[in-house]
Amino acid sequence: MPHINLLPWREQQRQASQQKFLILIGSIVGISLFVMYLIGSFYDSLRTGQEIKNSYLQSEIRKLDTRIREINDLNAQKGNLQRRIRLIEELQGNRNLGTQIIDEVARVVPSGVYLTSLERDGNMIKVIGRSESNNRLSQMLRQVESSYLLERPTIQGIIAGEQTNRLLSDFTMHFYVKSYQDLEAAKEKE
Protein backbone atom coordinates (compact mmCIF):
# COMPACT_ATOMS: atom_id res chain seq x y z
CA MET A 1 0.00 0.00 0.00
CA PRO A 2 1.08 3.31 -0.70
CA HIS A 3 2.57 5.09 2.12
CA ILE A 4 0.13 7.54 3.63
CA ASN A 5 1.40 9.80 6.23
CA LEU A 6 -1.33 10.68 8.58
CA LEU A 7 0.90 12.58 10.96
CA PRO A 8 0.33 16.28 11.10
CA TRP A 9 3.68 17.10 9.45
CA ARG A 10 2.45 20.32 7.95
CA GLU A 11 1.38 21.45 11.35
CA GLN A 12 4.81 20.52 12.75
CA GLN A 13 6.55 22.25 9.85
CA ARG A 14 4.44 25.38 10.43
CA GLN A 15 5.24 25.31 14.18
CA ALA A 16 8.93 24.77 13.45
CA SER A 17 9.02 27.69 11.00
CA GLN A 18 7.02 29.80 13.44
CA GLN A 19 9.47 28.89 16.18
CA LYS A 20 12.40 29.82 13.92
CA PHE A 21 10.62 33.07 13.11
CA LEU A 22 10.12 33.88 16.83
CA ILE A 23 13.74 33.02 17.59
CA LEU A 24 14.85 35.21 14.70
CA ILE A 25 12.61 38.09 15.88
CA GLY A 26 13.83 37.63 19.47
CA SER A 27 17.48 37.60 18.42
CA ILE A 28 16.96 40.69 16.23
CA VAL A 29 15.25 42.48 19.14
CA GLY A 30 18.03 41.35 21.48
CA ILE A 31 20.76 42.45 19.07
CA SER A 32 18.91 45.76 18.48
CA LEU A 33 18.67 46.40 22.23
CA PHE A 34 22.35 45.51 22.66
CA VAL A 35 23.34 47.86 19.80
CA MET A 36 21.14 50.61 21.25
CA TYR A 37 22.77 50.06 24.65
CA LEU A 38 26.23 50.33 23.05
CA ILE A 39 25.25 53.48 21.16
CA GLY A 40 23.73 54.97 24.32
CA SER A 41 26.79 54.17 26.40
CA PHE A 42 29.03 55.61 23.63
CA TYR A 43 27.09 58.87 23.58
CA ASP A 44 26.96 58.89 27.39
CA SER A 45 30.74 58.58 27.50
CA LEU A 46 31.00 61.41 24.94
CA ARG A 47 28.67 63.56 27.05
CA THR A 48 30.63 62.78 30.22
CA GLY A 49 33.87 63.63 28.45
CA GLN A 50 32.43 66.90 27.20
CA GLU A 51 31.17 67.76 30.70
CA ILE A 52 34.67 67.14 32.06
CA LYS A 53 36.11 69.40 29.33
CA ASN A 54 33.47 72.05 30.05
CA SER A 55 34.16 72.02 33.78
CA TYR A 56 37.91 72.32 33.08
CA LEU A 57 37.28 75.24 30.71
CA GLN A 58 35.01 76.93 33.26
CA SER A 59 37.68 76.66 35.95
CA GLU A 60 40.30 78.08 33.56
CA ILE A 61 37.94 80.89 32.58
CA ARG A 62 37.46 81.76 36.26
CA LYS A 63 41.24 81.83 36.72
CA LEU A 64 41.63 84.09 33.69
CA ASP A 65 38.83 86.36 34.92
CA THR A 66 40.65 86.85 38.23
CA ARG A 67 43.86 87.58 36.32
CA ILE A 68 42.03 90.08 34.10
CA ARG A 69 40.64 91.82 37.21
CA GLU A 70 44.15 91.94 38.67
CA ILE A 71 45.49 93.39 35.41
CA ASN A 72 42.71 96.00 35.32
CA ASP A 73 43.49 96.93 38.93
CA LEU A 74 47.17 97.22 38.04
CA ASN A 75 46.31 99.37 35.01
CA ALA A 76 44.22 101.64 37.22
CA GLN A 77 47.09 101.92 39.69
CA LYS A 78 49.48 102.58 36.80
CA GLY A 79 47.19 105.36 35.52
CA ASN A 80 47.05 106.92 38.99
CA LEU A 81 50.82 106.76 39.30
CA GLN A 82 51.28 108.29 35.85
CA ARG A 83 48.92 111.14 36.74
CA ARG A 84 50.85 111.72 39.96
CA ILE A 85 54.17 111.64 38.09
CA ARG A 86 52.85 114.18 35.53
CA LEU A 87 51.60 116.40 38.36
CA ILE A 88 54.96 116.18 40.12
CA GLU A 89 56.79 116.93 36.86
CA GLU A 90 54.49 119.89 36.24
CA LEU A 91 55.04 121.19 39.77
CA GLN A 92 58.77 120.66 39.36
CA GLY A 93 58.70 122.51 36.03
CA ASN A 94 56.60 125.34 37.49
CA ARG A 95 58.80 125.67 40.56
CA ASN A 96 60.90 128.41 38.98
CA LEU A 97 58.12 129.74 36.76
CA GLY A 98 57.77 133.03 38.66
CA THR A 99 61.46 133.80 38.22
CA GLN A 100 61.33 132.77 34.56
CA ILE A 101 58.33 135.04 33.97
CA ILE A 102 60.09 138.05 35.51
CA ASP A 103 63.26 137.32 33.48
CA GLU A 104 61.24 136.96 30.27
CA VAL A 105 59.24 140.15 30.93
CA ALA A 106 62.51 142.01 31.53
CA ARG A 107 63.83 140.61 28.23
CA VAL A 108 60.77 141.56 26.14
CA VAL A 109 60.42 145.12 27.49
CA PRO A 110 62.41 147.41 25.16
CA SER A 111 64.10 150.60 26.22
CA GLY A 112 61.68 153.49 26.31
CA VAL A 113 58.93 151.38 27.91
CA TYR A 114 58.49 151.60 31.66
CA LEU A 115 56.35 149.20 33.69
CA THR A 116 54.46 150.55 36.67
CA SER A 117 52.45 147.43 37.55
CA LEU A 118 52.71 143.69 36.87
CA GLU A 119 49.94 141.35 38.03
CA ARG A 120 49.55 137.62 37.47
CA ASP A 121 46.15 135.92 37.57
CA GLY A 122 46.57 132.24 36.71
CA ASN A 123 48.21 132.16 33.29
CA MET A 124 47.28 135.77 32.45
CA ILE A 125 49.69 138.59 33.15
CA LYS A 126 48.45 142.18 33.22
CA VAL A 127 51.02 144.89 32.64
CA ILE A 128 50.42 148.61 33.21
CA GLY A 129 53.10 151.04 32.16
CA ARG A 130 54.26 154.03 30.17
CA SER A 131 55.83 154.23 26.76
CA GLU A 132 57.76 156.88 24.88
CA SER A 133 56.17 155.84 21.56
CA ASN A 134 53.74 153.41 20.02
CA ASN A 135 56.59 151.90 18.00
CA ARG A 136 58.19 150.72 21.21
CA LEU A 137 54.89 149.12 22.24
CA SER A 138 54.63 147.30 18.90
CA GLN A 139 58.22 146.14 19.35
CA MET A 140 57.24 144.79 22.78
CA LEU A 141 54.24 142.99 21.23
CA ARG A 142 56.50 141.33 18.64
CA GLN A 143 58.95 140.22 21.31
CA VAL A 144 56.16 138.72 23.44
CA GLU A 145 54.90 136.82 20.37
CA SER A 146 58.41 135.43 19.72
CA SER A 147 58.97 134.54 23.37
CA TYR A 148 59.37 130.89 24.38
CA LEU A 149 57.36 131.47 27.57
CA LEU A 150 54.76 134.17 26.73
CA GLU A 151 51.98 134.21 24.15
CA ARG A 152 48.85 136.05 22.90
CA PRO A 153 49.67 139.68 23.74
CA THR A 154 46.86 142.22 23.56
CA ILE A 155 46.89 145.92 24.30
CA GLN A 156 43.82 147.04 26.20
CA GLY A 157 44.37 150.74 25.68
CA ILE A 158 46.83 153.54 25.09
CA ILE A 159 46.17 156.90 26.69
CA ALA A 160 48.11 159.97 25.56
CA GLY A 161 50.21 161.62 28.24
CA GLU A 162 48.98 164.44 30.39
CA GLN A 163 50.27 167.99 30.20
CA THR A 164 53.27 167.42 32.45
CA ASN A 165 54.47 164.19 30.86
CA ARG A 166 53.29 164.76 27.32
CA LEU A 167 56.04 162.51 25.98
CA LEU A 168 54.87 159.36 27.81
CA SER A 169 51.68 157.46 27.00
CA ASP A 170 49.96 155.17 29.50
CA PHE A 171 49.10 151.64 28.32
CA THR A 172 47.57 148.44 29.60
CA MET A 173 48.60 145.09 28.12
CA HIS A 174 47.62 141.47 28.72
CA PHE A 175 49.55 138.37 27.73
CA TYR A 176 49.54 134.74 28.80
CA VAL A 177 52.09 132.24 30.05
CA LYS A 178 52.28 129.13 27.86
CA SER A 179 51.03 125.92 29.42
CA TYR A 180 53.42 123.31 30.80
CA GLN A 181 52.55 120.91 27.96
CA ASP A 182 53.34 123.56 25.33
CA LEU A 183 56.67 124.29 27.02
CA GLU A 184 57.55 120.58 27.13
CA ALA A 185 56.61 120.18 23.47
CA ALA A 186 58.80 123.14 22.56
CA LYS A 187 61.72 121.64 24.52
CA GLU A 188 61.28 118.30 22.70
CA LYS A 189 61.37 120.02 19.30
CA GLU A 190 64.72 121.59 20.14
TrEMBL record:
Transmembrane segments: 21-43
Key word Metal-binding present: no
Gene Ontology biological process terms in this record: type IV pilus assembly; type IV pilus-dependent motility
Keyword annotations from UniProtKB, A to Z: Coiled coil, Membrane, Transmembrane, Transmembrane helix
InterPro entries: Extracell_DNA_Util/SecSys_Comp, PilN
Sections of the chain in a coiled coil: 64-91
PANTHER family the record matches: DNA UTILIZATION PROTEIN HOFN, TYPE IV PILUS INNER MEMBRANE COMPONENT PILN
Name of protein: Type IV pilus biogenesis protein PilN
Organism: Pseudoalteromonas phenolica
